[in-house]
Amino acid sequence: MTKAILLDPQTSSIMPTEVGDFEDIQRKIGCRCFSCINFPDGKHVAYVDDEGLINGTEYGTMFNDEIYPEPLMGKILIIGTNGAGEDVDCTIKGSELQDLIEGIVRLKH
Question: How many domains does the chain have?
Answer without folding.
Answer: 1
